[in-house]
Amino acid sequence: MARGEGRQVGASDAPAGDGAPPLLRTIAQLMTLIGGLEGPGFRLRLWASFFLTLLGKVLAVFSPLVLADGINALSEGRTEGALTTFIGLAGFWAGLRFASTAGPQLRDAIFQPVSEEAQRRAGARVFAHVHSLSVRFHHSKRTGAVYRTIERGIRAIDFLLRFLAFNIAPTLIELALAAGVLAWRYGWSFAFIAALTVVLYAWITFGVTEWRLKHRREMNERDTEAAGRAVDSLLNFETVKSFAAEGRESARYDKALAQYADAAVRSNTSLVLLNVLQGLVMNVGLVAMVIAAGMLVARGGMGPGDITAVILIMVNLYAPLNILGFAYREIKQTSIDMEKMFALLRETPDVADAAGAPALTPGAGQVVFDHVSFAHEGRDRGLDDVTFTAPAGKTTAIVVPSGAGKSTVLKLLFRFYDPSAGRVLIDGQDVRGVTQQSLRDALGLVPQDVVLFNDTLRYNIAYGRPDATQLELEEAARRAQLLHFIESLPQGWDTRVGERGLKLSGGEKQRVGIARVVLKNPRILILDEATSSLDSATEAEVQKALEEASRGRTTIVVAHRLSTIAGADQIVVLEEGRVVERGAHAALIAKDGLYAGLWKRQAEEPDTVAAE
Prior knowledge:
This protein is an alpha/beta fold. It has a domain of 325 residues: ABC transporter type 1, transmembrane domain (ABC transporter transmembrane region fold), CATH 1.20.1560. Helix content is 63%, strand content 9%. It has 18 helices and ten strands. The strands form two sheets. A six-stranded mixed sheet has the order 6-7-8-3-9-10, sandwiched between helices. Strands 2-1-4-5 form a four-stranded antiparallel sheet, with helices on one face. 36% of the residues are buried.
């Protein structure tokens, strides 16, 4: 009987409107995803594996007849020759059985490279597709749930390929061979019993499986929810600790696990029912076959060896029959696993390159916002007819008293979103008309919170330009006021920074982010409140590094501390999404408008870090 269904399955997200059966649609999608099975020797390996599978099936059906002849020879004569014949046939039978079981093992070894390559192709393509999706998608999805969807879908590929190629068709062939051998050797009644057993088994298996799949779907949804909560909580462990919410988070996770456990109990209980019904059909069929054989022996139509052969054929028949039932359930469940992965692949980015879009043509680095309007989904405030020019090689600061709109300016410049009206231009080129790769190659960002990979300092700094030499890395670190710190560490450049860079201080992380951007050497440098979370001493060090990094580049600065942008060539002041003031620091102070009021407020309250 089928046992141990440990794999969870994904919720059904099958596309509508496709007339093909779900399984065939899944197979077609899989073949498209992995690009077929073209590759070095893959077709040869596939055919060799299929041949070994068929050979094993044929040997499994015919080997009991060899043993039957040996037992009949032994029972019919008590001579030494009869014993010799029996021993010879028994040995031959053992050899055939060994070959029938060794073939599939050899097949698995031959087929493994094909399976691994299929999983590699699928995994790489799905991963690349998820990275190609827009910021809006990533903001709306849990990282843990997305990863679990990819993981399950990839894991399902191996199972689907193996069972489709080596279990479904070969098992049907073995069933037909077994029925044919029974009819030829012992009569149609034996073939009828075998066929009836198969039909009843298949009917019960398919029917109960369809009923219990809803429990599997629910179990998977609960599993995904638990995984998503766990990853979300662990990624934000500092927030959890700062609010002393460890118990609360553990309780939420425990509740998710309890819901998963309830769904798992229902799923496994339905599996027990299925196994009991399958066992009943198998044993009734075996008893019926033995009784029919006994009646034929009593009439002298069969020998004792033939009873053994009938039992062995039925037992051998039950193994693939059992696999057939297991395969049906698993393929149905695997298809559901893959449906969510394919649903993920059907996601399209909100922002995509135009057909035939050229690369951004290198220029001096002038940035223009030309009557730009934009509001995030679900918000009524954003940018409203914003127009300003950031001259090439100069520093432009953006001040937003309310805090609404400053990050939007940067996201539109990086083309994480497209404006609802107006244009964003770099050197006269609309960013919507060039490739995103070339656009972002021209931009360098130092955010307020630099998030690093859990890898070495070398890897994180070289992320700006992976092919950089050691001398170039050292020069970038020097310009970011970081080289002395790196050289003072016991492991130097090979020091690991921890999850999201948590082994480094805030100032050290900021300087790693600066070094990374300096190494990238972009035409346009964007500083998104790069010093707002630092203490005064650290801010002075980082500010020096930023001044070094921005020398000779077009620099756009968003800052809370107005003292850090007083030296900017131009300051653009936004209020409620509109440009209300623009000019140099001295001119804006003389104007005594919004900017001057903010400046006075911060001067009177030196500890204030936010321009509010």
